[in-house]
Amino acid sequence: MEPLRRVGDLEIEEDLEFQRAMWRVQKIGWVVIGIIVVAALLGLFGNGPLSRAVAGQAGLRFRVEYERFARYKAPMSMTIRIEPGVAQQGRVRVWVAREYLEAIAIQQIVPEPVEVLSQEDGTTYVIQVADPSKPASVTFDAQPDQFGLQTIRIQVQDGQPLRFRQLIYP
Amino acid sequence: MDAILRGAAVYIFLLLILRLGGKRSLAQITAFDFVLLLIISEATQQALLADDYSVTNGFLVIVTLVGIDIGLSIWKQRSPRTEKWIDDAPVVLIENGRLLWERMERERVDLDDILAAARELHGLERLEQIKYAVLERSGGISIVPKQ
């Protein structure tokens, strides 16, 4: 056992050297807490301007509005906006790659697909469109079941698949 | 598996954040400190148990928390340095009747807090009756009156 320190008449384990270091660490910690709060307000942890994102690609006739940052088991949504003239016979086929479907639990799809086709590498949702000469959209409401960086691949009709990424916090 | 990871993550995070808050942050000085403690525990509960309400999950989380606590206490026993970083160390605020302002400022303790402790613990009336005032690790202030 260490010999007891004395401050005046007090036998006390005071350690000013440690205390100063601790105060310094605390100050740094407060700054870090401040940064985290501001980052969270901006949406670094989901639901904010930094988190809102739109994926699209030249030559593709749709784009996807999604959350760049999502959280494990927290509700999130993704909207696929389809340009006019894409639908054929009043229907649009939206294909989502299997990896992503395994990472999330879909709560609902609006509008509800008229057909859902399971494939080896993903699932195709067939959506009925009222007027193919006007833009259409499909919204997926889901909850992530896995965390980490996810790569999402979405294809509309028979075009090129669109690839983008989403970070899911634990 | 994730029950253990969740328990460990919450333990470490809470330890870190409460240490950053300083000795006085949750010393239950005011009624609101107590309410804050309740709110924090409420927010923690979700992260600890997630949506798994099984008894097994609850047991695993408790075992993890107590296990880490035992582990840390053994480590603290062996290393006084670790003990200080985890449990903090007391700071003398009044030494032989002399006020140490810089420390009081750093620990965010003011004269009113010391006088309140003096009244509560010893029924002292004035500052000059205090010989030593120490801010303890718990966040409470202990007072040694002059004879």
TrEMBL record, chain A:
The chain crosses the membrane at residues 28-46. The lineage of its organism: Bacteria, Pseudomonadati, Thermomicrobiota, Thermomicrobia, Thermomicrobiales. It comes from the Bacteria. This is Uncharacterized protein. It comes from Thermalbibacter longus. Keywords: Membrane, Transmembrane, Transmembrane helix.
UniProtKB/TrEMBL annotation, chain B:
Residues 78-146 form the YetF C-terminal domain. It is a multi-pass membrane protein. GO terms for cellular component: plasma membrane. Gene3D superfamilies: bsu07140 like domains. It comes from the Bacteria. InterPro entries: DUF421, UPF0702_alpha/beta_dom_sf. It is found in: Cell membrane. Keywords: Cell membrane, Membrane, Transmembrane, Transmembrane helix. The chain crosses the membrane at residues 58-75. Belongs to the UPF0702 family. This is DUF421 domain-containing protein. It comes from Thermalbibacter longus.
